[in-house]
Amino acid sequence: MNARAWVGLVKGILMCAVPLFGGAGTLAWPAGWAFLALIFGSGLAIMLDLARRDPALLEERMKPLVQEGQPRWDRILLSAFFAGWIGWLALMGVDAVRFGWSAMPLWLQWVGGAGVALSMWILHRIFRENTFLAAVVRIQKEREHRVVSTGPYAVVRHPMYASALILLAASALLLGSWWGLAGAFALGAVLALRTALEDRELQRGLPGYPDYATRVRYRLVPLIW
Question: What class does CATH assign to 3-215?
Answer without folding.
Answer: mainly alpha
